[in-house]
Amino acid sequence: MPQLGETVQEGTVSVWHKQVGDRVEPDEILAEIETDKVSMEIPSPGRGILKEIRVQAGATVPVGAVLAVVEGEGESAGAQAPAPAAAARQGAAAPSGEAAQARLAAVGGTATAPAAAQNDPPKPFGRVRSQRLSPAVRRLAAEHSLDLRAIGGTGRNGRITRRDVIDFIAARQARPAAAQSGAAAAAAPAAAPRPAPAAAAASAPATARAPSPTQATPAAAGAENRVPFTRIRRLTAEHMVRSKATSPHVLQAVEVDFSRVDTVRKAMRDAWRARHGHSLTYLPFIAYAVCQALREFPNINSRVEGDSLVLHDYVHLGIAVDLGAEGLVAPVIKHADQLSVGQLSTAIYEISRRAREGRLKPDDLSGGTYTISNNGTFGTLITAPIINQPQVAILSTDGVRKRPVVIEHPDGDSIAIRPVGILAQSFDHRAVDGAYSAAFLDRVRKLLETTSWTVDL
Amino acid sequence: MAELTYREAVAAGLAQEMRRDPRVVFLGEDVAAAGGVFKTTVGLLDEFGPKRVKDTPISEQAILGAAMGAAMTGLRPVAEIMFSDFFAVCWDIVANQIAKTRYMTDGQCTIPLVIRSANGGGARFGAQHSQSVENWAMAIPGLKVVAPSSPADVKGLLAAAIRDEDPVLFFEQKSLYATKGEVPDGEHVDELGKAKVLREGKDVTIVALAAMVPRSLKAAEVLEKEHGISATVVDVRSLVPLDTQTILTEVAKTGRLVTVEENPRLCGWGAEIASIVADEIFWDLDGPIVRVTTPHVPLAAANNLEDAQLPSPEKIVAKVRELVD
Amino acid sequence: MDAQTTHAAASARTPEGSLSPETRLKLYRSMVECRYLEKRAYDLFMQNLIKGTSHLGLGQEAIAAGFAAAMRPDDYTFCTYRGHNHTLVRGVSMTKILGELMGNSSGLMRGKGGSMHLTSVEHYMMGSYAIVGAHLTIAVGAAWSAQYRGTEQVAVCFFGDGTTNIGAFHEALNLAVVWKLPVVFVCENNLYMEYTSIHQVTAVEHPAADRASAYGLEPILIDGNDVDVVYRTALRALDVARRGGGPSLIEAETYRHGGHSRADPGKYRPDDEVKAWLAKDPIPRYRARLIELGIEEAKLAAIEQEVQAAVDRATEEARNAPPPDLSLAEKDVWANGGSAWRN
Questions:
Q1: In this complex, which of B67, B110, B245 lies closest to C141 when CB atoms are compared?
Q2: Looking at A249, A276, A312, A429, which residue is catalytic?
Q3: Does residue B129 have an active-site annotation?
Q4: Whether C326 and A267 lie within 8 Å, measured CB to CB
Q5: Which of B106, B320, C91, C136 is the most exposed place for a label (fewest CB within 10 A)?
Q6: What is the pLDDT of residues C205-237, one digit of tens each?
Q7: Which pTM value belongs to this model?
Q8: Once rounded to an integer, what is the mean pLDDT over residues C80-91?
C-alpha cells in the first residue's frame, strides 16, 4: 500500500482488475485503491504473472503492506529479488524469501520489474478488451464508489460498458435500503433488474454531472433524509476537527489592490487561453508572491514538531481543490518557489484537473509546506481557513471586485476605482505571533501591488 | 414546402439572395449561358442579366482574384470553381490572399465572398475530378467551410454564407446533386456553425458531413433493425466554424464516436473532431474513437474500385458493430 | 510592332510640355519623400531596429510619384512587396510606414502585416502583395466592382518585370480586356526579377510591352525614370479607363539602386550597368530640369530640408511607440474582430 500523503495511514483496495495467474505487462492497471482522500490506480511494476493477491478487494490495510506479488517471467525461484527502494523506506520487511518478485507496495517508487521477457513481440493494442475499462466506466465507478466486480459486463468478452454501470446505479437507487453505501452496492447481485432505458440515458449528461445517486435520492415529503458521509467526506471532517484541536488558529487579513496584476492579466488573457487552454487567474500571481514572501519569513513555511519549529528551505505549495460534494484535497506543487507566474499557472491548472479527475499520484499529496485555498471564484469577501496539518499557516484568497480606493498623493488625495480583494491567513499561534504574520502578509501585498508583472506565454 | 433537388436548391439559394441584395454578383466558368456544367445555376442569367451573372475564361486565379477584389470594394461576389480539385490551381488566391488579408491589414479589409465548388466522388470521374478537399480548406485560418447534405441546407446555408461578412468555401457534394428533399417556402436562411442532430440513439454517435450523411442515416437504420444498435447521427454541416458543443453533447450521451468522412485518411476533419472529443470528454468515452474514411489513396474511376474506396453504409455498419458489439 | 514608337510614349517624351510649376514641385517633393524615407528605412535596418525583410524602391521613385499625382483620390492602388513608395505617395504618414516596418503600435497595421503588406484602405491603397502575380487578379476585381457600381474609379496595379512570366499575369490581362475593365497595369521593369536578369528568362525583349498585343492592347514602353513622362502616361491611361475604354498595360523602365531585398547587395549586376543607371537617377535628373526651367534652387533645397525634418520626426515617433498589444495576435481573423473557429 503506497504512501499517499503524510496524513495517510491506511488504504482500501477497491477493485482488482487482474486475477491470480493473469499475465501482466508493465504499467498495466492491476488494482484500484482508495486512501485518505484519493482514489488511484496501481499499475504493474513489471512484466510477469500475478502470483498472489494478498489483500482482497474491500479490505483495508496499513501503508506499506504488500498487496500482491508479481513474478517476473523467466526468473527462476531462488534468484535474488531487487528490494524496491520504496519498501525499504517504508520500513516494511523485505521479501527475502520471495525470489524475483516485484512488490506492489513499491508502486510509484523506483522499483523496476525483473527484465526477463524483454524480447516478447509487442502486443497489438485494442484487441483484448475484456479486462479493459473505458474512461467513462472508470469515472462513473470513482464518482459512485462502485465495486466493479459486482457489475455484470454485457460487452464483448464480458467487458463492463458504460451502460452496464448506469443501469447498475439506477438499479441500486431503486432499492432504497440497500443503496446507501458503496459497501452495500458491492454486495448487490450482478443481475440487478434493469431500469427503463430512458432513466439510464438521462443520468449521463457530459457537462452537468449528476450528483451521486446516494445524495440525489429524493426524501419523502417532510421526512428526514440521512446521507452518510463518503469516505473522503469523513476523512475531511476528521482532519478539520484534528487541526482545530491541534493549532490555536488566529485570522489576519489584508486588503490588496490588484491593479498591476489585472493589467497583465487583461493583456495576456486571450493569448494565454489560446496557448494553454485555460485562464490566467489571479491565483498564480498570489502564489508567486506568497512563495517569494515565504523565503523572507521562513517561520511561516514550517511545521511544529514537539517543542521545535522545523523550517523548510523550499516551498512545496498546497492548492486546495474542491471535489464538489466529495470533499477537499490539497495536492502539492513541489518547489513552487522556483516557478515563474506562467509555470505556476500551468502547474495549478494541471494539478487541480488531475485532482478532479481522480488521477493524483501518491507523491502529489505529500510534503506540502504551505497551502492556499482559493474561494475567490464565488466572490466571497473573506474566509477563515483551517490549517492543513502539519503546516502552520494557510491563506484564503477571496473575491476580487472593483472598489473605490483612496489614492494618496502629495498634491492631494483622490478616489480611484481599483480591483481589490482580501487575503486572509490563519496561522498557528504556537509557531508564530501576530506581528510576524502581519509582516508576512504585508510583504505579500506589497509584492502584488508593486511588481511589474510579466508573464511569458 | 416544395420538393427540390439538391442542384435546384443551389440556384434557388443564389436567386433568393440576388433578388434581395444588388451587391450579390456571380461568376464562373460556364455558369451563365450554359447554366453550369452540373446545371446548378440554370435560369440565373435570364433573371439577373449578364451584368450580374458572368461567364469567365478558364482562369481560376482570375475568377477568385476578381471575386476578392470585388469583395474588398463593396460587392458580395459568389464565385464558382467547377470542380473542387481545381482549387489546386488557385490556392494562392484562396490560402494566401483571401484568407489572410483581413488579418494582415489589421482588420482594414472585409472580404464577404462565397466560393461554391462541386466536391467529392461517386461519379466515376477519376482522381482529379472526385476529391473531397474540405479538409484542405479547414487547415487555413481565415476561411469558413460549409458542406450541406440536403436541398434545404443547400439553400439555407448558401444564403447564410452569402450574407456572412467573411469568406466562405461552400462545398456541394456532386453525388448529391440529383437527390430530392423538401425546402421551406419563402425566404430560407440558415445559420453557419450549427450542426444538426438528424437521429437520436443510445449506443453510438455517428458524425458525418455532406454525402456521408445520407449514408450514415442508412447505416443507422440497418444497425437498428438488424443488429439492435441504436445510433445518433449528427450532420456537421459547417467545419469552420465548428459546432463542437453539439458534437460533444451527442458523443457524451452515447459514450462512443464514429466519424464518417469522404476525404482520404490523413488529417481528415474527423481527426480534429476525434482530438477535441478525446481532450474534452475523455471521461465520458466508453470505447475508442473510430474514423471511417476513404483510404489514403487517389480515387479510381472504375465503378467497383471507387465504390470500394468510399465509405458505404455497409462499411459504416461493420465499423460500428466492431465498436459496439 | 516596334514597342518603342507608340504615340503615347512619343508625346510623353517631351519633358517641357505644359505642366505647371506647382505640379512639378509636387512631383519633386513626392520623389524626395520616397527617397529620404527609404534611406532612413535602410539606416534603421543597419541599426537592427527593423527586423525581417524589406524591399526598397530606391531609384524607382518616379513611377510611384508620377502615377499618384495623376490619380483621383478614390482610385485604387495595388502594388507589390516593394511598396513603401506606393503607400507613401497615396498620403499615408511616414510614421505609420516606419512603425509598420519596426513592427510596433504606431504602424499602419500595428505590426500585423509588416514591410511587405502595407495597406491603407482609407487612402484607397488596397494593399502590397507578396506573392508574385496574385494582385493583378485582385486589381481586376476592384476594377470590376468600380465598373459595376458606376463610380468611374480606376484600379492601378504596379508589378515587377518578373511577374510577366507567371500565369496570373495572363489570366488577369485577358479577363480585364474581355470585361473592358477600368484598370491600369504598370510593369516596373528594373531589369532583374530577383537575382537573375529578366532577359535571361523571358522570351521577348520587353517583358510587358511585347506581350500587350497578345491581349489586343497597345504596347506602351516608357522611361520610368522621367517623372514627367510617367505623369503624362498615367493621365492618359487613367482617362481611357475612366471613360470606359478598358485597361492599359504600361512598361516603365527603371532600375533599383540596391539589391532585391535587405539581404542582397546586388553584386550580380555589371558595374558599368549600375553606373549608367545611377546617372539616370530620377531625382537629380528632375532637379536639374526644374532649375533649367527657372525654378529657384532655394525652393528645392527648402523642400529637401522640410522632407528631411519630416523623416526625422517620423523616425522618432515610430521609434518611441510601444510594441503592439499582445491581444492583437488573435484578433481580426474574422469580420467580427475575433478568431474563434468553434463554439
A1: B67
A2: A429
A3: yes
A4: yes
A5: C91
A6: 999 999 999 999 999 999 999 999 999 999 999
A7: 0.66
A8: 97
